[in-house]
Give the backbone structure.
Amino acid sequence: MHEAVFLVLLALHLLAATTWVGGVLFFVFAIVPAARAAPAAGIPTAVGRAFRPVAYVALATLIVTGPLLLLLQGFGPRTLVTADFWASAFGTTLAIKAALVALVLVLTIWHDAVLGPRAERTREPGATRIVGRAIGVLSVAILLAGLLLTQGL
């Protein structure tokens, strides 16, 4: 039973990560360049609004399944409060991944709640593009940290 639950959570985590990172990268490398070719079409706004609920479900899934996967691998609260754990390569990588996740969450909220509406009003993307690119780069870094964690690093 434990293994089946682990595999289901892992599948959900990977699907959510694929959805999030793939969507962000598609937006940065396909939607934004298309919008430059036809700025009046409102492509980023329309696609962003359509993708936002999917992205938020993916993020929520990642936030729930990540800690559950750790717990099922034996990294419970008692382990996570020890200095030895955080001093290990695995603990350091997990700390970096967690910090990157927190940063992506903050940037995503800022992008969607502040910068996006401002860009719609002013018709000037400005910081929205820069923050979007940063979210993309950080999301790839989170994937790489997750890969390192699967290897015990």
